[in-house]
Structures are given as C-alpha cells and as structure tokens.
Specification:
The chain folds into two domains: 88 residues, Elongation Factor Tu (Ef-tu), domain 3 (Beta Barrel), CATH 2.40.30.10; 149 residues, Rossmann fold, CATH 3.40.50.80. The longest helix is centred in the last third of the chain and has 14 residues. Helices cover 21% and strands 35% of the residues. It is globular and about 55 Å long. It has six helices and 15 strands. By secondary structure, it is of the alpha/beta class.
C-alpha cells in the first residue's frame, strides 16, 4: 500500500497542546471509527518514522487529533493549510456497528477521544444519540468537548475537579451499568482506564470494544513493534489485529 499525498486544508487548536489537522487528497479517505492513519510531512529524514493517529473524521477530508508531546508531533503542530502531508491508510480494524436497541456508551480518556467523536457522529447520523463519558486530569485536557455536546449526551469528569464531576471516568459508567445492562460500550484511552472499563463490562455481561493506543513503526504488521499480550497469552498486533479488540479478548473474563 502506498502513501497518499494530501494537502492540509485546515488547522484547529481545540485545547492547549492539541491540534486538529484536516487534510484532503485526490481520493476520499474511506475510513471508519477506530481506524488509524500513518502520517508524515515533508520534514526530510529526521524523524525517520511516520506517526500513527486515529481518524476523527473521514470522507472527502480526513482529520486527526495530535497532542503535541515531542519532536514529531511538534512538526505536525507547525503545519499550515496548503502544506503537504503523506497519509497511509486507513489501517486496522475499526469499531463494529452498534447492536439494534442497545444504548451506545462511549468512554474516552485524553486523546482517546478521537475515534469516539467519530463514533458519536456516526451514531448521530443514524438518528441516535450516544452517551459520552469523557475523563481527563484537568480542564485543559479535553479537546473536542464542545463538538461532542452537539452529537451526544456528555458527562465530563476531571481528576482535579476543574470542570465537570471530580473523579474517574469509570464512576458514571458504574452508575449506568447499575441501572441497565442493555448497553454497548466502546472505549479508548490510557491502558489503566481501558482495563477498568473492561472489568466493569465483563462483570456486567455487556459487549465492550476497546481501541488500544500504541506507538507504531510501520502500521502494517511488519515490524512487530506494537505487540500486546492478549488474555489467551498469545500476542496480538495493534496495527494489524486491532487497534479495536473485544475487551474480553485482551483483558480476559476473570477480573
């Protein structure tokens, strides 16, 4: 698979140290929620590797959410409309379609919000409205919050209580599952959060999919750098087997 040459069409900064990059090429970006793309700009041979990002949107334009934390992401932060961006993908396994009649619950932590905004908008375009639980350390770590409010019923939690409810994002999920198990959970965020969500879902017997976050060198299953040990003690590769997995397949049923 070859990289698609695209041009940056818009740059937004939805929160401190976060940038939303929109891009378009000579063909649509045919992706679904949970899939990712490998991207690199025209910055020469350093850094060598492309960077992997979940799609926030796809179609005539694609979009990715970047948290600026290092040299590669700083280069992406420096892009301007009209700049060239090479894009490989969409890659990987995305989220499944919700089962008819189930309440869709989306659980996001940090930049794990990216594929879940895409999912919330997919649900809204189908005439539904998801329940969106969004957790962060502080109010500065909630990019795309206002966008979510337009398409889903949003509950925000912050560890420092600077906005929304103080506490962990799993606390409102406990309340939801206590009221009903006729739900379907999709989650993306830090690994401890995903493990906690999986534990709650498995204990309640509700379907749950998790999108794993991992650094990737190739994005195609060649380098084996994104291996994770699954519940069956076999390795899975986030780029080619995932990034979306059934929660029970990764975290197991005895939690």
């Amino acid at each position: 698979m070859d990289y698609l040459r695209t041009r940056v069409t818009a740059i937004e900064r939805p929160a401190p140290e976060h940038v939303l990059v929109r891009f378009a090429g000579d063909r649509p970006i045919e992706g679904r929620p949970g899939q990712f793309v490998m991207v690199r700009g025209e910055w020469g041979f350093h850094p060598v590797l492309a960077r992997a990002f979940s799609l926030v949107e796809a179609g005539e334009q694609g979009a990715i959410l970047v948290r600026v934390v290092g040299e590669g992401t700083a280069l992406l932060d420096g892009l301007r409309p009209g700049d060239s961006l090479a894009v490989l993908g969409p890659q990987g396994r995305g989220f499944s379609e919700p089962e008819t009649g189930r309440r869709v619950v989306l659980v996001a932590g940090g930049v794990g919000v990216a594929p879940l905004v895409f999912m919330a908008e997919r649900v809204a375009n189908g005439g539904g409205r998801a329940t969106f639980l969004y957790g962060a350390r502080t109010s500065a770590d909630l990019p795309l919050e206002e966008r979510i409010r337009g398409v889903a019923d949003l509950t925000v939690t912050t560890e420092d209580g600077s906005i929304g409810r103080q506490g962990l994002v799993t606390e409102p999920l406990v309340q939801i599952l206590a009221d009903s198990t006729d739900v379907q959970i999709y989650a993306c965020g830090p690994e401890p959060m995903l493990a906690a969500v999986a534990r709650l879902a498995v204990a309640s017997g509700v379907p749950c999919e998790v999108a794993l976050e991992s650094r990737m060198a190739c994005g195609m299953g060649t380098c084996k750098g994104c291996a994770v040990l699954a519940a069956d003690r076999e390795y899975r590769y986030v780029c080619s087997d995932g990034p979306v997995f059934e929660a029970i397949a990764i975290y197991g049923g005895d939690q």
